[in-house]
Amino acid sequence: MKQRTLVLLKPDAVNRRLMGEIISRFEKKGLKIVAMKMLWMSRERAEKHYEVHKDKPFYESLIDYITSGPIVAMVLEGDRAIEVVRKMMGKTNGIEAEPGTIRGDFAMSIQNNLVHGSDSEESAKREIPIFFDDSEILEYRLVDEVWI
After folding, report:
1. What radius of gyration, in Å, describes the C-alpha atoms of the chain?
2. Would you state the pLDDT for residue 113?
3. Average pLDDT, consecutive stretches of 10 residues, N- to C-terminus, the chain (148 residues)
4. Is 17 annotated as a binding residue?
């Protein structure tokens, strides 16, 4: 089942020069990048993105963190893309994440954990438009799609 999911490379991924490594992992797995941009997330956009956490005690620190530096926003497409990305990212807390996952290999924190990925189809449908207009999401075919 072909799906789309939002992936954010958070400020620590950008500042630690891990963007290429992380993007490469998703591409090597067979996911297709159909939209991508680098930006500095505004507080307004961050509040909209993290509105589901508004009443939680970590909300303000989450907003402060995600707006503290540039991020990369991407839409990835592929069979069961949401599930695949979630497995590749690993557990939220980098200390608990399995080696071989992005967080397991590079993160030591629950907050500075390098990446965000939509946790469901509903979340992806809500999150993607926060970062991308329909005109920014490309439809194209990769030459190796039949092999993946």
Report:
1. 15
2. 95
3. 96 98 98 98 96 91 96 98 98 96 95 95 98 97 86
4. no
Has residue 60 been placed in a domain? yes
Would you say the pTM of this structure is higher than 0.85? yes
Residue 5 annotated as binding site? no
Q: Is residue 146 part of a domain?
A: no
- The reply to whether 86 sits in an annotated binding site is yes
β 32-40/115-117 pair status: unpaired
Q: Please list the active-site residues.
A: 116
Domain-located, residue 114:
yes
Going by C-beta distance under 8 Å and a sequence separation of 6 or more, which residues neighbour residue 81?
2, 3, 4, 5, 31
Report the number of distinct structural domains present in the chain: 1
The CATH number that applies at residue 63 is 3.30.70.141
80 is in an annotated binding site: no
Domain range for residue 78?
Answer: 2-132
